[in-house]
Amino acid sequence: MKNLLFLVTFIFVQNILSAQFIQNPLPYSYDDLEPFVDAETTKLHYSKHHAAYVNNLNAAVAGTPIEKLSLNEILAKASTMSSEIRNNAGGHYNHELYWTVLTPEENTKASTELENAINETFGSLDLLKEKLTTAGISVFGSGWAWLIVTNKGKLAVCSTQNQDNPLMDIATIKGTPIFAIDVWEHAYYLDYLNKKNDYLSTIWNVVNWTEISKRYHDAITNPDKFAFWPEIKSFHKVISHTFYPSEEGNLQPVKEKSSELLENAFALKTSNIPTEYLTRSIVTAVNKLAIYSKSLDKLVKSNATDEKITKALNNLHNEFHTLLELCSLEDNL
Ligand code: MN
After folding, report:
1. 278 and 209 fall within a common domain
2. In contact, 56 and 92? CB cutoff 8 Å
3. Do 201 and 246 fall into the same domain?
4. 1-14: per-residue pLDDT in tens?
5. 139 CA → ligand 1 middle, Å
6. Ligand 1 centroid distance, CA of 181 (Å)
7. CA 24 to centroid of ligand 1, rounded, Å
8. Which CATH number does the domain housing residue 25 bear?
9. How remote is the CA of residue 290 from the centroid of ligand 1, in Å?
10. 126 and 275 both lie in a single domain
11. What is the rounded radius of gyration, in angstroms, for the C-alpha atoms of the chain?
């Protein structure tokens, strides 16, 4: 029994220490997309190509500060990443999306909400398919064709080279991807040889419109307005975990996390503020957050009274909301 417990603990700890990025199971069997995508292609594509991106990504970030970032945070900072991390993080994200937007289920339909948006933006579903096919064909070498929701909530079609994607800060057209076509040769070569056009016209037989509709709905209802300012999101996470318990009289979290708050406030202060938020009042608010976080941390470290700590935390929380409001103002300009 003791041995078993040891083994379970060992496996558990080993999992925590190793790979933090994991490949989700394929939502169907290798042969389910036949005859449109053959089993051998899907098997190689999923178990070799995609798996390699995940393994290489985990190896590249291991032991660096980047391993603490989420996949989306890495993509949003692609311009600051090594090409190895940029390629493998993109490769992992892009394939995760690709598997879910394909399905063996026949005749899936776009929701009325998505259909209306497609008609409004492209004229019809057929015209959208044409546009995506053209985007795929126009990729020189390896890359992806995308249907995205822009930061303004509009549909758009674009393409990227290699494993880049529209979530990256280096992308010419940015937004939340809701559908992707892999136009690397490994996605179609066994079936279609070099006939990329045939692959692009056949892929529609296995497209999962139910999933795309769901992703569309999520993208327009929860727009990620801070996608390119991950530091503000990290700060938000820590302030939520400390402020809300303090409202219930529980100061334990803020006492434990005051230096984490300070680190995040400092990271925010030294971050690259996205141009749409780069105003004097926002810079001032960001600087104030760093100052308030520092005095809060000092109070905690010197065992100040709960009253003083609560007051400093409230100040910090208020200043954070001032910053968020300033950002909303900028949005309306
Ligand atoms: Mn691929």
Report:
1. no
2. no
3. no
4. 455 554 444 444 44
5. 14
6. 9
7. 15
8. 3.55.40.20
9. 43
10. no
11. 23
